[in-house]
Amino acid sequence: MTTDLHTANIELLPAAGAPRQLMLLLHGVGANAANLLPLGRVLRAHFPQAAVISLQGYEPFDGMPHDGSARQWFSIRGDVEAQRPARVAAVLPRLVADIRAHQERLGVGEAATALVGFSQGTILSLEAVAARDGLAGRVLAFSGRYASLPAQAPKLTTLHFFHGGADPVIPVRHAKEAMQHLAQLEGSDATLDIAEGIGHELDAALLDCALHRLTHHIPMRTWQAALGGVAAAASPGGDDTLQ
Question: In whole angstroms, what is the distance from residue 36 CA to residue 229 CA?
Answer without folding.
Answer: 40
